[in-house]
Amino acid sequence: MAQFASMKKIARLLQKELGEIFIQKASQLLDNTMVIVTEVSMSPDLGLAKVYLSFILDQNRVAMLEKIEQKKSIIRKFLGNRIGSKLRKVPELRFYLDDSAEQAVKIQQLLDELDIPEDTDYAQQDAWTW
Prior knowledge:
Elements: H1 2-24, H2 26-30, E1 34-42, E2 48-56, H3 61-70, H4 72-83, E3 92-97, H5 100-113, H6 120-124
Parallel strand pairs: 2-3
Antiparallel strand pairs: 1-2
């Protein structure tokens, strides 16, 4: 259980630090595209961090993810400079697109398109005469 708690603690630390790196170094790394680190999950040995990203105001998210992949070593170096005193080893980073916001919009659109008739029989019944 303690290992699970430390994994979550390190994941939160990486999410915070990577978010700050993307804010501070956006012009240098990503042509001023705003990146949000939505989630970080750690492998049990703490050697790998899966980083889920969302991009604001950028239509070509796949190209932006490729650009981040190309600059992964620079991002990891920035991360190491920030957390080097807290962790013995900077984990390997794997970046993924977080499409949960788009999925939520699609689900809402599908729900809005449903044509569900109201149950008039139930609405007309007196609640006390069951």
